[in-house]
Write a structure and sequence with these properties.
The protein folds into two domains: 9-106, no CATH class; 107-250. 48% of the residues lie in helices and 10% in strands. The protein has helices at 11-23, 34-55, 57-63, 65-78, 93-101, 108-123, 164-170, 204-214, 219-226, 230-242; strands at residues 149-151, 156-160, 186-192, 197-201, 246-249. The strands form two sheets. Strands 2-3-4 form a three-stranded antiparallel sheet, with helices on both faces. Helix 3 crosses helix 4 (65-78) and helix 8 (204-214) packs antiparallel against helix 9. The longest helix is centred in the N-terminal third of the chain and has 22 residues, at 34-55.
Length: 250
C-alpha cells in the first residue's frame, strides 16, 4: 500500500535551495517566485561587493571601480559567502588575486590585498594590556636569552617582493600617483592600537626579529636569527616595549 503523505522539505534543504538560487538564476527554488528572487539576488550581490570594498579600499582605488566589480563577480563565483558574518567574505581574496594575476604586471595587487586583509584581521583582534620593559628586571641575567615574548594578538607581519606598504600609505590620500614598483621589496607590520589601526613598514632585521618572536623563539634565538648585534638588540627591545607589542613574558 502506497503512502499518501506528501514530502515536506526540511529547513536546511529549503535554505540550501534558496542559497543556490541566489547564486545561479538557472536554479529553481520553491521558497520564492522568480520575480522576488531577482530582488534577493541583486541585494546579495550588492552586499557582497560592498563588504569586499570595505576590506580592500586601496585595491579598489588602484584598479578602479569597473575592474573591481569584475573581480568581485569572478571572486564570488569561486568563493561564495559561507558565513552569516560579512567580515569573512574577503578572506580568500588575496589567494584569488594571486592566481588570477600571477605572471602579469599587476601581480603585486595580491600582496597589497594580503596587507589589507591583515588590517581587517587586526581590526577584530583583542588588544592585550602591554607589558613594560621593567618586567625584564624580574629575571636573572642568565635567564634573559631563554625568555619567550607573547606579542599582541592583533600583530600581523607581512613581507612582499613589492613596495606594498608604500602603495598603501600613499593611497590614504585621494588621487595618489602610482608608486614606482622598482622601489623593490618591503616588509612591515599591521597592528591595532586602542584608537587606530597602524600600518607601518619595518627595517628588515627588525622584521626578522619580530617574526622569530611571533613564532615562539626564545629571545637569544630570535637575536641570532635576525643577526642583531648588541646595539641593534637594545634598539629592538626598546621598540617592542615602547610600541606596546609585548603582552606576556615567560
Amino acid at each position: 500500500m502506497q503512502s499518501s503523505e506528501k514530502y515536506v522539505a526540511s529547513l536546511r534543504e529549503m535554505q540550501s535551495a534558496f542559497a543556490a538560487a541566489l547564486r545561479d538564476p538557472a536554479v529553481a527554488c520553491a521558497v520564492l517566485p522568480a520575480e522576488n528572487l531577482s530582488i534577493y539576488r541583486n541585494n546579495a550581490a550588492v552586499s557582497f561587493r560592498v563588504a569586499l570594498e570595505g576590506s580592500y579600499p586601496v585595491v579598489r582605488r588602484r584598479v578602479g571601480d569597473d575592474y573591481f566589480r569584475q573581480l568581485t563577480w569572478q571572486y564570488r563565483e569561486r568563493f561564495p559567502s559561507r558565513s552569516g558574518d560579512l567580515h569573512w567574505i574577503g578572506q580568500d581574496f588575496p589567494a584569488f588575486l594571486f592566481e588570477h594575476l600571477q605572471g602579469s604586471e599587476y601581480a603585486w595587487l595580491a600582496d597589497l590585498a594580503r596587507l589589507e586583509w591583515a588590517r581587517s584581521q587586526a581590526a577584530i583582534a583583542k588588544v592585550e594590556p602591554p607589558m613594560l620593559a621593567d618586567v625584564l628586571g624580574r629575571f636573572a641575567p642568565g635567564q634573559l636569552e631563554h625568555l619567550v615574548f607573547g606579542l599582541q594578538p592583533s600583530l600581523q607581519l607581512i613581507a612582499s617582493d613589492f613596495p606594498i606598504f608604500s602603495v598603501w600609505l600613499a593611497n590614504q590620500a585621494d588621487n595618489a600617483s602610482p608608486v614606482d614598483q622598482s622601489v623593490g621589496p618591503e616588509c612591515g607590520m599591521v597592528r591595532a592600537r586602542s584608537d587606530l589601526l597602524e600600518v607601518r613598514p619595518l627595517e628588515p632585521r627588525l622584521f626578522s626579529y619580530l617574526c622569530a618572536l611571533e613564532a615562539g623563539a626564545p629571545l637569544g634565538e630570535a637575536v641570532n636569527t635576525a643577526g642583531l648585534d648588541q646595539s641593534a638588540l637594545v634598539s629592538a627591545l626598546g621598540f617592542v616595549f615602547s610600541e606596546g607589542l609585548v603582552s606576556s613574558v615567560r
